[in-house]
DNA sequence: GCGACTTTCTATACATGTATAGAAAGTAAC
DNA sequence: GTTACTTTCTATACATGTATAGAAAGTCGC
């Protein structure tokens, strides 16, 4: 490995990531701006862009670090493939929910970070074990992933909406329901808010597993 | 209705929405900035903020207009409840995919616009018809919605990634796969890109319907 | 040591969403 | 009319991500 040419770097990708972690940990995710980060590592904002393509990629790398610490629990002993898929999906979602800025990243890529590949691996493996072809297993994983990403996004949007208590556009909609054209929704009416605040993630994954995997032998 | 007090408005919400539609139609979604919009209706940017809380709300209202034109196809004649759910979900997704800036809005709310309420109504009604309680039917709708939102987001992220052909972070990940810890993924290897470009939305909805609704009578 | 080349860093600039302060233009009370 | 009040609009300012141009600081061939 010969010495590199060019002006020697003052900062490294690692410096940036370390500082980013520190800022987020101490002051929360909204404090993480490129300018702030630059100050933190003692350089100018644009210097960061030689180590990182853009802020999205930075967040992706941060996610990677977080993912390395995400648990990869053993599947419950003696569980069938279906239960393994459910367990992996639930763990994956739980891990991601702990990352506060996850929503910005979910838009950026449809597969997770390198160090979280344990989850797809486990899901795909269990699906194959259940009798799917590898191709079908990949489909199954992607479907579960889309569901998971959508659920997390919606959940965090709902949380933000609760913070600033804007009259939620939605409540207005539900005031003026035309009971003739939309009888079901009108009947639900005021209960909608309560009903849609329930956590139905598990229910959804289980439904997907039931619908995607062949039924287990009796 | 007495005359209103205060300085009389120069512009109306309708003016704004009309101009916004025109800009998007003629120059695409990235041309729609608050400054541009202000120029278009002949006022200053900040004046818009008296008619619209922020850009997100503006997009939400735009979506509402689009949604009014989204088709609400008759369910296939003689179809069971399951088929009705699938048909509605597919139509909903198709309608939303036609809205180019849909991704910005999907983060903002977890129920769709007022004039697209036909879709949840149809899905919930079919689910009740299939034998679910109203509460379960709402759960089912929300689960389908999360899946749909996640799928659309991922799809549009993938499309953007193809435009600028950045080496996708993902491809790098798949180069350095540890075949011992991640045998399934390693085996898939180069086929991953091809496999994950397939459209599996239908498959997913059908699986959800199978998993959520009671089996139809034979 | 010197010029070419490469990599990293700095300075400056721009577009964007939006906060804030206050001016403008009307109605209502007297 | 004058004053108070309300609504809408204008001017200005700021933080943010990032583009662009070029300066700085090294290595390499000679």
Describe it:
2 copies of one chain form a homodimer. The model of chain A has no long low-confidence stretch (mean pLDDT 90). The first copy, chain A, is mainly α and 218 residues long. Chain A has helices spanning 13-27, 34-41, 45-48, 55-68, 81-97, 102-106, 118-129, 134-163, 170-175, 183-188, 191-195, 201-212. Helices cover 61% and strands 0% of the residues of chain A. Chain A starts with 12 loop residues before the first helix and ends in a 6-residue tail after the last helix. Chain A is built from 12 helices and no strands. The structure holds a DNA duplex (30 and 30 nucleotides).
Number of helices of chain A: 12
Tell me the Rg of chain A in angstroms.
22 Å
Number of strands of chain A: 0
Poorly predicted runs of 5 or more residues of chain A = none
Helix/strand structural class of chain A: mainly alpha
State the oligomer: homodimer
Average residue-wise pLDDT of chain A: 90
Q: Describe the global form of chain A.
A: flat
Straight-line distance between termini of chain A: 60 Å
**N-to-C SSE string of chain A, H for helix and E for strand:** HHHHHHHHHHHH
> Largest inter-chain interface?
A-B, 66 and 66 residues
Query: For the report, how would you describe the main beta sheet of chain A?
Result: none
Helix fraction of chain A?
Answer: 55-70%
Strand coverage percent of chain A: under 5%
Q: Quick recap of the structure?
A:
The structure is a homodimer of 218-residue chains. Chain A has helices spanning 13-27, 34-41, 45-48, 55-68, 81-97, 102-106, 118-129, 134-163, 170-175, 183-188, 191-195, 201-212. With 218 residues, chain A is mainly α.
